[in-house]
Amino acid sequence: MAYNLLKGKRGIIFGALDPNSIAWKTAERVHEEGGTFVLTNAPVAMRMGQIDELAKKTGAQIIPADATSIEDLENLVAKSVEILGGKLDFVLHAIGMSVNVRKGRSYTDEKYDFTAKGWDVSALSFHKVMQSLYKADAMNEWGSIVALTYMAAQRTFPDYNDMADNKAYLESVARSFGYFFGKEKKVRVNTISQSPTPTTAGQGVKGFDAFISYAEKMSPLGNASAQDCAEYTVTLFSDFTKEVTMQNLFHDGGFSNTGVSQEIIEKFSEKE
Ligand SMILES: NC(=O)c1ccc[n+]([C@@H]2O[C@H](COP(=O)([O-])OP(=O)(O)OC[C@H]3O[C@@H](n4cnc5c(N)ncnc54)[C@H](O)[C@@H]3O)[C@@H](O)[C@H]2O)c1
How far apart are CA 29 and CA 149, in angstroms? Predict the structure, then answer.
């Protein structure tokens, strides 16, 4: 069902790699709600991914940008404003990658140039995106900027590795930049802390299948899907959430506030 919640709104969506991507589902949902946008991803991901298909389906143009490159981001922001015919109302940052995870190095055996690269891609890039938007004065008043995060920023999940630290940094950037964007430009900045979701980035985490089943059993509402996340993001881009800013918003079926569930208790009772 579509409600025209984003009619007349323009934006940029980072991170759609394939149809499982949270950003892919968000682009489809934003399109259904009447929003127009530019799609962007790293040039290398574009060659592997299927973003052309999404662009065709949603009437979007694609502008490649490595989210760690200020030059790419400045070009992306300027071109997006030009293509869309005005300043922006929404931006989705859905970017994550850890080189240590990819290379199978544990948290106690980090290679620090891998750590630095993963931090730049997954965390500092959010500051770079916002600084590029801020300096170009590219956001409309009452615009909304959202980044995706995970609860490992607050609680330890050993196999989430250095991404936990990256997410903690990302959430802090949302608060800090949210202050300046709010005061100076009346733009809100939030992070959505999403359930484990079967995407390319998600499945890179060791033991992901077991973990997603555990989270499903721990969450009173079950895990939030990528589609659910897309819908929540639409609400944050809409005019119905204008005063929500500098928040980390859990979108996890209740996992984060559950100590234990009946299903988990029963699983352990079986073994006694
Ligand atoms: N999947 C999960 O379980 C889960 C849970 C909570 C939060 N998240 C977060 O959601 C966001 C989206 O991930 P996803 O799960 O949809 O996976 P995904 O693999 O579909 O998306 C990750 C995206 O990051 C892009 N990217 C990597 N390096 C980049 C760079 N240098 N410049 C620009 N883009 C770059 C990739 O090309 C890809 O499109 C990430 O921030 C991820 O950490 C995922």
Answer: 20
